[in-house]
Amino acid sequence: MNKVVAFGEIMLRLSTERHLRFAQAKTFTATYGGGEFNVGVSLVNYGINAEFVTRLPQNEIGACALREMRKMNVESKNVIFGGERLGTYYLETGAGTRGSNVVYDRAHSAMATIQKGMIDWEKVLEGATWFHWSGITTAISESAAEACLEAVKVAHQLGLTISCDLNYRAKLWQYGKTPSEVMPELLAYTNVVLGDIDTAFFMLGQVKVDPNYEDLKSLPVLYSKLFTLCPNLKIVATTLRYSVSASHQRIGGVLFDGKSIFNAAIQEVTPVVDRVGSGDAFMGGLIYGLLEYKNDKQKALDFAVAACCLKHTVSGDYNLVTLNEVENMLDGNVSGLVSR
């Protein structure tokens, strides 16, 4: 039986209501979320056993975050406690030609002040088959990056499949190191990577490239270089997002397995309810697809794209859709009719 362990930070999300600007807001809607936790929620919704490992402050807000994990049926038995605060982010949801805006308030959070050695990774990963991390964790602090590297090394030693969503966030890399100083060592152990080719090259300290994702014949050369730079790499996938406006997105995807390129048809998504967490929905769908459709990478990619599209219709960080709903979209059911 598959078990996926994800490592990262769960945050308090404070979002304005009804597309208000920050300056207009008198109240904020409080929910929770975070890249790696969002992936865990998706997997649980599809019937995969998922565990989330993080560090929480030992106060009422930390207790609320833990309760949220339990509410979403994501295993939390190896969560550790310490630090002063839960990381927070503020979201101003865009509409039409005005994009959304995120303000982070996560400096010195419980997760940002985690230290390597605090988690017994051999114990945590016992019985697991997959380990997931992202570039967000390595961006929040040097000690969080060191703890992530510690986890990745143990996961590699135990023979787990290791996945990473590159998730470059320029606002977060503020502790004095660049991605190219941190990411290459972690990516050297990683088997499945989700991210843009140009972002991957940037994080690996390579010369900037400008890939044309519509020219499928040109992509294998670029993707192959990533396989050379990351010796344990088996799969690279990229979410294709063409933003018509904040309310209208066009979503597709590309996957390369070292030999063949796979392409998913572009889907029109309008109106957009909430695009935050849609990349995590793609990642969760991709992990599920690779686990369940081992010999059908096209179907795995199509599942990830469908999951990503559906997330745009759901408010909040989590992709609260069922396996049946994703499969219905794969079968061409995009009418939105009431299910009676």
Automatic annotation (TrEMBL):
<dbReference type="InterPro" id="IPR052700">
    <property type="entry name" value="Carb_kinase_PfkB-like"/>
</dbReference>
<protein>
    <submittedName>
        <fullName>Sugar kinase</fullName>
    </submittedName>
</protein>
<dbReference type="Pfam" id="PF00294">
    <property type="entry name" value="PfkB"/>
</dbReference>
<dbReference type="GO" id="GO:0016301">
    <property type="term" value="F:kinase activity"/>
</dbReference>
<keyword id="KW-0808">Transferase</keyword>
<dbReference type="InterPro" id="IPR029056">
    <property type="entry name" value="Ribokinase-like"/>
</dbReference>
<keyword id="KW-0418">Kinase</keyword>
<comment type="similarity">
    <text>Belongs to the carbohydrate kinase PfkB family.</text>
</comment>
<feature type="domain" description="Carbohydrate kinase PfkB">
    <location>
        <begin position="1"/>
        <end position="319"/>
    </location>
</feature>
<dbReference type="InterPro" id="IPR011611">
    <property type="entry name" value="PfkB_dom"/>
</dbReference>
